[in-house]
UniProtKB/TrEMBL annotation:
InterPro entries: DUF4124
Coiled-coil segments on the chain, per record: 63-90
Name of the protein this chain belongs to: DUF4124 domain-containing protein
Positions of region (Disordered): 40-61
Stretches assigned to the DUF4124 domain: 3-42
Keywords tagged on the record: Coiled coil
Species of provenance: Candidatus Gallionella acididurans
Superkingdom of the organism of origin: Bacteria
Amino acid sequence: MLVHAEIYKAVDADGHVTYSSSPIAGGKKLNLEPLPTMLPAAKGSGFPSVDSQTQKGRDNTRRKILQDELDAEKKLLNAATQKLNDAASTPDVYRGQDGKTYRNVAAYDAKVQPLQDEVDLHTKNIEAIETELSRMPK
């Protein structure tokens, strides 16, 4: 969109310069050449491209890598879940001075929380890999 306006310039007795889009007393109309505009970037044929077979090969390789990572993460998730279940099923207890046994909740939480974090990490990794796989061209 091109916009054109007449510009006027006035200099007062103190040397202050004023520009305006409407005529002002003592001002002179400026003749301004239009500013050069940038041409759109050329969509050249010089940009490297690959044929569809090469791209399909790359996509298949990437899909295989992602599938292998997904399988590995699922195995790690199963192992982490098993460790978490084992830790959760064996609560830490201590014997009080009265001879009774009590659950040591702080020790239990300290043991279980890192295992839960590991399960969460593998779950998020699986979700991320599945998202990547879903974005792959069919």
